[in-house]
Amino acid sequence: MDISIMPRPSRSGEKIFYSLEWGKEAGQRSATGIYTYAKPKDQIQKNHNKEALNILNVKKSQMILDLQSVANGHLPQYKIKKNFVDFFADFVKKNKRDGNRSLPCCLSLFKKFIEPDFKTYISPVDITENFCERFRSYLLDNLNGETPADYFMRFKRVIKAATKQGYFLDNPAEDIKIKGHPSQIKEVLTAEEYTKLMNSYCSNHEVKKAAVMSMYTGFRWCDVEPLQWWQIKENTIVIRKQSKTGVPLEVPLHPVVKAIIGERKADEERVFDLPTADGANKVLKKWVSKDAKIKKHITWHCLRHTVSDILQDSGVDVATVAALLGQTSAKYILSTYKKRVRIRHTTEAIKHLPVLT
User: Fold this and answer.
1) Cα dist. 136→69, 71, 119, 147, 151 in Å?
2) Does residue 225 sit in the same domain as residue 247?
3) Is 149 part of any domain?
4) Would you say residue 333 lies in a domain?
5) Which residues are CB-contacts of 312 (< 8 A; sequence separation ≥ 6)?
6) Cβ-count burial of 111 within 10 angstroms (0-12 exposed, 13-18 middle, 19+ buried)?
7) Model confidence pTM above 0.70
8) pLDDT score, position 348
């Protein structure tokens, strides 16, 4: 078994990072996290380089033994004894993305799932196909919509990575499939309800201002809550990186938004002084149902769907709507819109059926 130590210079050229490679196919390279100084400036850096290369050779030797064990149908003993929760947590730390909570939440639910039988320690040998099927059922029983499928796919990523690193001889989750629950269609406001809501009293003016911005931009809560004044330009609002997708976004500054946000403050100050997400949704619920007397269940994310539906009802093409909302694809926007249109059409259709007199 031949393993090569592959150097890769940093962007600045000051350091050299190393990975171990034993082939050219996917999964046949492993980053070590070890680096040396390209041009050591003093004895401390020279000592660091010497120690780093020693550790690198130890890692190479260990990986050769691991790969030979797996090739001969055996798992390395130290990996059998390792707590898989630690591997999972390390995977989350290295792979989580800002604004995306799926991996951390999946880990949290995994810990809750194993707690009755294993407490806080579970060996890779205990993670069998049956175990994975039971974890899938646990997710389906405790989560709604597409979330169970999303979390289980993250779990399968972790298991696949662990298999490649020699924790399993065969991937125990490979053949297990999952479908989420049918998604509940979110309610949206009509154009008339838009006006009615904006003309109604709201107990928290800051929440009202932020909600109006979302009603005219389609911003998610996680994008509108941290918004700062430097992002408000003369005619646009700029988000360098959306919290959920990581994609930059620049949208037109609607005159209604410009009028309601008030006097400009220092660039680093937040545009809105808001409570927590739960607190803001409670204010929004009261504003919609009690103050404006609109008999609908409207959450902050419903405002985003409302923007999409009103624009499409007005004839704006779906690609433009997707661009305004910062979506990388128009597929989801079109599918959710079609579902709501279908409900409206069926509601109108049954009015043509005969009635009893």
Assistant:
1) 30, 30, 19, 11, 9
2) yes
3) yes
4) yes
5) 318, 321, 337
6) middle
7) no
8) 75
User: What is the reported pLDDT for 65?
Assistant: 76
Query: How far is Cα 322 from Cα 324, in angstroms, rounded to an integer?
Result: 5
Question: What is the domain range of residue 14?
Answer: 4-74
Instruction: Give the integer Cα–Cα distance in Å for 81 and 77.
Output: 6
Q: Are 14 and 25 in contact (CB under 8 A)?
A: no
β-partners of residue 35 are 17
**Total number of domains constituting the chain:** 3
- The residues, any chain, with a CB within 8 Å of residue 195's CB and separated by 6 or more, are none
Domain identity same for 38 and 84: no
> Could you give the count of Cα atoms lying within 13 Å of 86 in the half-sphere of its Cβ?
9
Please report, for the domain that includes residue 224, its CATH number: 1.10.443.10
Residues in the chain where the model's pLDDT stays below 50: none
DSSP state of 346: H
Same domain, 152 and 203: no
Residue 180 covered by a domain: no
Task: Report the SS3 class of residue 315.
Answer: coil
Q: Are 158 and 91 in contact (CB under 8 A)?
A: yes
Spatial separation of the C-alpha atoms in residues 28 and 18, rounded to whole Å: 14
Residue in 185, 184, 217, 212 with CA at minimum distance from that of residue 292: 212
Tell me how far apart the alpha carbons of residues 151 and 85 are, in angstroms, rounded to a whole number.
16
Residue 182 lies in a domain: no
Do 62 and 84 fall within a single domain? no
The whole-number pLDDT of residue 7 equals 94
Q: What is the pLDDT of residues 221-256, one digit of tens each?
A: 999 999 999 999 999 999 988 877 778 899 999 999
Do 195 and 243 lie in a common domain?
A: yes
Assess whether 290 and 153 both reside in one domain.
no
